[in-house]
Amino acid sequence: MSEQILRATILLFVAVGGSAVVLTRETAAQAMVVSFYGLLLSILFFVFQAPDVALSQLVVGALALPLMILLALARVKKQGQKQKRREQENT
Amino acid sequence: MLAYGAMPPVGFVQSKYGDMVNSLTVSERHITDAVTAVNFDVRGFDTLGEEFILFTSVLGVVVLMRRQKDEPAGDHEDQLPGRTIPKPSDAARVMSFALVAPTVLFGLYIVTHGQVSPGGGFQGGVILASAPLLLYLCARYSDLKRVLPDKLVDISEAIGAAGYIVIGGACVALGGVFLQNLLPLGKSGTVTGGGMVAFIDLGVGLEVSGGLCTALLIYLEELLEDKEQ
């Protein structure tokens, strides 16, 4: 019985986490929320008795994915700043 | 909600293959982790394809981000005298520094104990690949490059990817089937259980960690280089 409660609880958390990821509008903040959502998913896999998947998901979803998002974001911002600076020099 | 209620209860096993795998892995293959047994022993050939998916995608990233002939190499931005990137906070740096060694140790543990407890080559390799990221968080990019030169990462990834095929080929050369387990199956529950799975695990761990470290280094290089466009 407590197993059912645990499973229902973690599924509810995952649903709330997913909505939170979608409803976060700022990209840098969204990367952090995606990382936490990856942690929630990892716990979900663990509760459903798949520890191998949980291990992989923990590193990929909570570490590598937000890292890629943040790196791409920083690169785009840097390019934007460079363009702005060049426009200011030209005018 | 209706669909959720109509589904069979969790843990409802319908497949005979699942039953067979669960009952036979310990007695026949001496491996206590059924997932690793299926991945590397019972269905080892599929894992070869999976490993090469990762290898090919890292190859794609390398090819996409290679230096064009007319792009000059610039200085890295965290070494310029102005230091345009803010330093990470002290708390982050201390935590990352404290966590690098345990992460490497834990990753090695997960790689080598794939046949005993949940884990295996893929999981351990990914954990190992996150250690350089922690190192970058507490130091500068030049320190990361000093610890993890490009050649080392390339060689480890190549050894891992080729090792799988070499092990399989060695089985064929010794008169068996491709990837047949020719080593004596050790005691189940220890690292020696499953014979050849330990070596395949090491190969896959090397390949996955090398591949992800390559991707990480490429992304960081792409970000931090002060290129003139």
Structure write-up:
The complex is a heterodimer of chains A (91) and B (229). The mean pLDDT of chain A is 89. With 91 residues, chain A is mainly alpha-helical. Chain A has 3 helices and no strands. Chain A has helices spanning 2-23, 27-47, 51-90. Chain A has one domain (2-90). Chain B has 229 residues and is mainly alpha-helical. Chain B has one domain (29-62, 85-221). Chain B is 65% helix and 0% strand. Chain B has helices at 2-6, 16-29, 34-42, 44-64, 90-112, 121-138, 141-147, 150-173, 197-224. In chain B, helix 4 (44-64) packs antiparallel against helix 8 (150-173). Classes of the chains: A mainly alpha (91), B mainly alpha (229). The interface between A and B is medium-sized, with 18 and 23 residues.
Helix/strand layout:
The complex is a heterodimer of chains A (91) and B (229).
Chain A: H1 2-23, H2 27-47, H3 51-90
Helix pairs in contact in A: 1-2, 2-3
Chain B: H1 2-6, H2 16-29, H3 34-42, H4 44-64, H5 90-112, H6 121-138, H7 141-147, H8 150-173, H9 197-224
Helix pairs in contact in B: 2-3, 3-4, 4-8, 4-9, 5-6, 6-9, 8-9
Shape descriptor of chain B: globular
| Overall residue-averaged pLDDT value of chain B | 79
Secondary-structure element pattern of chain A, one letter each: HHH
Mean pLDDT of chain A: 89
- H and E order of chain B: HHHHHHHHH
- Category by helix and strand content of chain B: mainly alpha
Oligomer: heterodimer
- Net shape of chain A: elongated
Low-confidence stretches of chain A: none
**Radius of gyration of chain A in whole Å, from Cα?**
19 Å
Q: What is the number of helices of chain B?
A: 9
Our count of domains of chain A comes out at 1
Largest sheet composition of chain B = none
Runs of chain B in which pLDDT lies below 50 for 5 or more consecutive residues are none
Count of β-strands of chain B: 0
Kindly estimate the percentage of residues of chain B that lie in beta strands according to DSSP: under 5%
- Total beta strand runs of chain A: 0
How would you characterize the largest beta sheet of chain A? Answer: none
Largest interface: A-B, 18 and 23 residues
Distance between the termini of chain A: 71 Å
